[in-house]
Structures are given as structure tokens and as C-alpha cells.
Amino acid sequence: MLLLSNRFIIIIFFLFINSNILGQSTFQYYHRNPQQVEEGKDVNISVTLFVADPIVSGMLFFRSIDQMSYQEIPMQYVNGNWEGVIPGRNVVGDGIEYVVILHKRSWGRISVPLDDKPFDNPLSFNISQDRSEQKSRELVKTKKKTSQSGNYIDADILILSPETGSVNRPDEVVIAASLFNTDIVDTSNYRVLIDGKDYTKKSILDGGILTLTPNELSIGPHFVRLLFKTSYGLDITPIEWSFIITKGMVNMSESFRYKGNIGAMNTNSSASGIELVEQENNGKIDGELSWIKVRYSYRKSSRQSAFIQPLNRETLTLQVTDYLKLEYGDVYPSLSPFVLDGKRVRGRHIHVDLPWLDFQYVYGKISEQVNYKKGKVDGGYRFLVNNTELNPDGSRIFNLTRTGYTFPRDVSAARLAFTFFNIFSGGFHFLKAKDSFDEIPQYISNDEMFTFTPLDSTLDSAYIFNDYINNKSQYKFGEFEEVASSNGDTLTIPLNNWAGVAPKENLVAGFNFETALDNRNIIFQFAWNYSLTNNNIWDGPLTLDELDTKLDSLDDGKILDVSLEGVPDPDDYENLFTINEFITPFAPIDPATMETNPLRAIINMPSSAIHARIKGSYTLNNLLVEYKQIGPEFYTFGNPYMSNNIREFTIKDRLSLLGRRLMFVVGYSAKDNKLSETVLNPLKTNTLMLNTTLVPGPGAPSVVFNMQVIGKTNGIDSVTVDSIGQFLKDNREDSRALNTLFSVNIPGSMGPISNTIAVNFNSITYTDLVATDEKYIEKPRRD
Questions:
Q1: What pLDDT shows up at residue 781?
Q2: Cα 749 to chain center, whole Å?
Q3: Tell me: the pLDDT tens digits for 208-254?
Q4: Class for domain 17-129, per CATH?
Q5: Which helix (H) or strand (E) holds 58?
Q6: What is the helix (H) or strand (E) element at residue 318, kind and residue range?
Q7: Hey, CA dihedral for 55, 61, 62, 66, is it positive or negative?
Q8: SS3 assignment, position 24
Q9: 132-253: CATH topology
Q10: Alpha-carbon dihedral sign for residues 11, 16, 20, 23
Q11: Which of 125-134, 359-368, 387-396, 652-661 has the lowest mean pLDDT?
Q12: Is the pLDDT score of 137 beyond 70?
């Protein structure tokens, strides 16, 4: 028994020693260093985890032993291990140093090696070279050693590119060296040799950087030699290194990476006896080269129908370096909250993002054409009973109208912004959206049915008693047309001004800018936007003559005593915007406010939007002062859910103590809709809030306390009565609301199981002061 025990200890000891030689094993992971790595071959780095806390992502950092910076490659979870592959094109030189960083789901990271500073003490492995390449490197070293044995002056000259022993495509070779760290070099006396050939005349030495772009180098290894002299004519130790040029297509195929996924979902929900069943499948595929990334994603739903807006989604994205992004299909651009902010557009999106310039362009459709539902009575046609016309010969003209349609809405938007020295940035943006009513057909299927309503039972007897009308007085369009023709009557549908929705048009333009002070601790932002909306473009723009008589019916060259002399003809600007009597606003400035307060009238233009904000960020506290005003007639089709007719002032301050473990947030907000003199009883809302958060540290309980007090009033002090004094309604508003929240979160673990115990208390109290306060005792609430 003792002998067996000794053998077991020896085996365990041998495994322990072997694991320390070939890999790393800790209580968190096991990793084996790569062995017998050949130059030019892919190297797989694998880490096996022992921790219960899931890992959400991993990153492999690697570099050649003689390099200064690391390259990054994302790792994949394969068969229980996190794995990353170092491409063969990077496996060159004497060896590779590498570090693995794994990110936990809950908190923290795991590094391989397990060290506080893993990048200062990376893992490494050696690279075995081919004999021919090894001889070439030995020859280079021999030459360098021989050449440097003479009388030379040393200088700190740094090789920038290509890296020693690197493999490069022919079109990416740039010879570069830095002279920043030395001041003894004579920049007018130097030579650049590649494989013994002089390329000095093609090189550039400017600003302490020597560069050369050779275009005629052949495939294979190449040797570079830089010869410099000091200002006194002494020779400087030659700078020598070698690199390899390979075929571009082979290198591109090696650098191409791709991944993807597909999924499916089946949902069944029921509400109020109505069941909704939906099957959905989706997928995504990513492809990547060194300079371009491609992503294609799609989503298909069984609820897709021609009678509702599309539910299917399809997007193709091309990211060219970091500066150009192209999107096609269903895109979600964000130009400005006042123009286009994440709304789906079926079309294309171009985004050029340079350090000093940002340009975005969007073109497509916000909404698609939706047709009538076939077979639905009055779904495509509707009979206009009161629009029947009588001809002099006694025949009649029956008028129908189109229904059951949604116009396709085209949109084009752009934004151009500039940034100067990280201190000032600003830009301009615009959006134009217009319904394409020409795409909706005037006539549809002859089998569509509508309800016929007779005006006179005797006169319309031929239409009431026949074989085509059913017992619900419903006709098919084609059969009604046949009956009308046989009776000498006609049937017509107008080209426009149908009974359904009218086509609209929207134009929004504006600007914004941002400036920073005190090393960007203080940031000031300002934005101004203006919109024009036409709610009916059926008949197109007005002419100048029509504009003259539209409001006052006098053909005198004036509109309400305002001369039209010099005013451009609206018909000349039809491609920009349709101007007619349905435009909003018809007057850009409120005339009532202009008479009493011109400055206020300009600031409170009914179709403008203003946003100003000051942010201060310092060590202990962050201050925010914000003012937002959106006029009652400001609309943008790119963000249709934006609230208008609102003015709001907000101030907040966040104080951080105990190393940001304890935070207090105090804020005040005042909001109303008093943007015009015509608003007699504006609704005012005042909000006071306090938030306290205590987070001592990882694994410790956290405490949150929130309190919010909201007060509303509209200034109405009486009830509404009719002409004889009878009570109609009580519109008075004077209320207070108190919202408090207290929460304690206690994290814990039981073996491999992590859990959090949360204790929450929430209270919401609403008080109607009109019904409870003593000041309203003489006029109590009446409902």
C-alpha cells in the first residue's frame, strides 16, 4: 500500500513539473504553451477555464519578440475552450510574445499569464525557421556584424516599417525610419540601399522621418541598408534589416475571416380572446479583411403582409477602414434628434467619418406603399352619395373615391459637420420627406365592392332592382359601371383629393455647434431647427396670382395689406417645397406676439426648435443646465414621436464622494406650453428630484434612494358652465405627486451559484389640491 502511494505521489509530482514546463495551470484556468512552432504556420492559443462565472468575450494580444506594440485578435469559444489563432503570416522572426484577456459576465477579467501586469510579463514561444531562411538571416547578421566592426558612431535611429522579418503585400511596402531620438545626423547626406541598389533619389526625409515607397520590388526576401553621416562627416553605424514580399492574393486569403449565425423563433400570445401567432427566422454573417468589414443581416416574419407596413428587415453594411461606412436596405441613421434619429429608412446610408469632418447622407423611404385589402367592402372604393351630378339631358354622373391606401413616403437627409482642434465642432443638417401620391393607382380591380346609397327610390329603381346588387345594397365596381352605362349614366373617380388621407410634405433644416472650455471640463452645446409642413399637396403649389386672392379675395397684389412685390412665385420652388394654403406655419412668426414683444416672437416662432445645454465635469461633481423649446407647429417626419408645444428648463448636479462610491444627484425641472399669446391657460409642471446611491465595492451591498416631487397647475380657477349657468366640466389642475424608491441589493454566492437578494420599497402618492386644499373650500372640485 505504501508503494502504491509513493508511485501516485511521483506521478502527480511529474505531472505538476511537466505542466509548469509546457503550460500554466491555476485555480482559474489551464493553458499549454505552443511547442515546435514552424515559421509561417498558424498557431492556436487555447485556454481552459475552471471558474463558474461565465466568460462573455476574450481577446488575444500578440507581437514578435522584437516588436513594440501588440496586435489584437478576438477569441472564440470552441468545445469548452477559449481559442484564438495567430495567422501564419505573423509567425516570423525568433519568437512570439502573447497575452490573453478574458472578460467575465458579472465583473472583472482573467489574464493569461495570471499577473497584475500581464503585458509587462507576457508568455512566449520560439519559432523554428526553414534552413534557407535561417541561412539568409545568419548572412544578414554576419554582414551587420562585419560592417559594424569598423570605426562608426552610434545613433538612436528607429525602424518603423516594414518590421524585421515581416511578410508584406507588394502594394503595402513603405520603407520608414525615425530620426526623432538623435540630433547628430546630417539630413542632407544619406543613402538608402535595397538589395544593393540605390533608391536615395526616390526617398523623402522631412520632419525627422525618412520614407521611401519602392514600386518595382519583386516577390521574395529583400535587404535594406540605411547609411548616414554626422554633421562632422563621420560614418554612423548602418541600419540594416530584411523583409519578405509575397503575393497579395495569398496574403488576402489568409487574412480573410468570417462568422455568422442563424436563428428562429415561434411566439404565441393571446389577449382578450385574440391570438397572435408569429414565426420568425433571422440570420447574420460577417466577413472581414484588414481594411474592410462586411455584414449582412436579415429578419423574416410570418406576419409580413401587403396590408401593413413591412415587418421583414434586410441590411448590408460595408465598413471601409474607420472612415467610410455604407449601408443598404433597412438602415437606422441618426443625424439629429430634430431631423432623423434612428427611424427605419428603406434605402441607403453613407457615412464619412474623418477626424475633422463628418458627413452623412440618407435616401430612401420612411413608409412603404400599402394597398387596399382585397374583398373588403368599401375597402378600395367608396360611393359619394352627395356628389352625384345631373347633366342637362337628365343623365347622371356618379362619383366614387379611392380608399384603403397608404402613400409611400420618400425621404432624403444630409448632415455636414466639422471639428476644429477638439475645441469647436458644428454642422448643418436638413431633411425633406414627401408622399409619392402618383404611385397609388386611380382604378383598381373591377371585383372590388362598395355600398350603393340611393337618393331617390323611384329615380334609382334601376339600380336597386337588378341581378347585380346584393341584399346589402353592395355592388362590384365593374358590374355597377355596366348598369350605369346601360342607363345612360357615367361613373367617375377623381384624379386626386380622394376621401382617404391627403399626401403630405415636410422640410426641416437647422444647425448645431459645440465648444469646450477648461480642457473640455465645460462643454456648451446649442441647436436650432425650423420646419415647414404641408398637410395637403394634392393640387401642387399656388401661383403668385392665386396667392394674391387666397386670403382676402381681392386681386390687388397684396395679402392682408402686405405687398407681394418682390415675392418669388411659389410655383418656381415646387422641387424644393410645395407652397399652398395648407402649409404649416402659414406665417413664420405669431403676429399677435410680434405686436407686443418682437424679440419673444422671434424666439418663440411656432415652427422652430431650440436646444441649449451646458455641462461641467469635474472630479467631485457634474453640473448640467439645459433649456429646450419646441414650437407647437414644429414637425419632423424623421422623428414623428417628438413632443412639440413644450418649453423646459432643467438643472442637475451630481456630487461624488468616497472615491465615487457615494453619489448624490439633485435636480429641478420646470416645464410649460406658454409659447404663444393665444395660450390662455398654460399647463405648468415643476419637478424636484433627489437621488442617492451607495456602492461600497465589488461583493458589498448597494443602497439606492430616490425621491421625486411633481407639481402641476394650469391657472384655471373656475368651472365651465353653459349659457344658463349649468355645470359642464371642471378643468382646474392643481396637484402634487410624491414618488419614493428605496432599494437594497445584497450579492452573495453558494459554491458555484451566484445570487443577489434585492429588497425594494416604492411608494407613489397623488394629491388633488383642488379637492383637498383649504384655499379651494369655497369652490370645491365638481366632477
A1: 83
A2: 38
A3: 889 999 877 888 889 999 999 888 788 898 999 998 887 654 445 55
A4: mainly beta
A5: strand 55-64
A6: strand 313-320
A7: negative
A8: strand
A9: Immunoglobulin-like (2.60.40)
A10: positive
A11: 125-134
A12: no
